[in-house]
Amino acid sequence: MLLTLRKTDDPDNVVNKTFYGLLNIDVVIKGAFDVNAPVLELYEDNFNINDYSSFTLSGFDRTYSIIDVERLGGLIVRVSGAIDLLDTYKTEIMAGSFDYWGTPRDGDYGTSNLSLSNDKKRLIVQPNESMTIENSHLLSVVRYTNNG
Fold it and tell me: What is the dihedral of CA 80, 82, 84, 85, to 10 degrees?
């Protein structure tokens, strides 16, 4: 599997970030792997993980933000990632083709045929298994402030 480390100077809350300084590393996933919150142990031989802010993994249409780096000793680092929703779903966001999920409050108005649900799902992939992702959803949080 190909891990691509990426740098950006854009803040986390930007859609369509500009990435540079790509570094490709062949990695082998051993054991169960959470595609929503991956944890990778890397040999930091010819790079400094702190120079990078995100990564992608071949075979997954997701961008991950690096949220934690733990030094395990020597040149071994444990890197924890979280899905960067704005970059992963930037095409849909830029096209405006997404649904709003939220809890209406007094004064809110609008119509929708969207079914609201509190279901939470986590996708765990075992190595060397085929995978299908169905019914993917984007969770969007919108804050509205009335300054009037």
Answer: 170
Rounded Cα–Cα distance for residues 102 and 5 (Å) = 34
Q: Answer whether 55's CB lies under 8 Å from 5's CB.
A: yes
Nearest by Cα to 78 from 51, 113, 43, 126: 43
Residue keyed to tokens 């995978």: 131
SS3 track for 54-96: EEEECCCCCEEEEEEEEEEECCEEEEEEEECHHHHCHHHHHHC
**Phi, then psi, of 125 in degrees rounded to 5:** -115, 130
What dihedral do alpha carbons 36, 40, 46, 50 form, nearest 10°?
A: 60
Q: Which two tokens stand for residue 35?
A: 């595609």
Tell me the pTM: 0.64
Q: How many residues are there in the chain?
A: 148
**23-65 per-position pLDDT tens digit:** 999 998 888 888 889 999 999 888 999 999 999 999 888 999 9
20: closest CA among 54, 69, 63, 44? 54
- Domain segments of the chain: what residues? 1-148
Q: What share of the chain is helix, strand, coil (3-state, %, to 5)?
A: 10, 30, 60
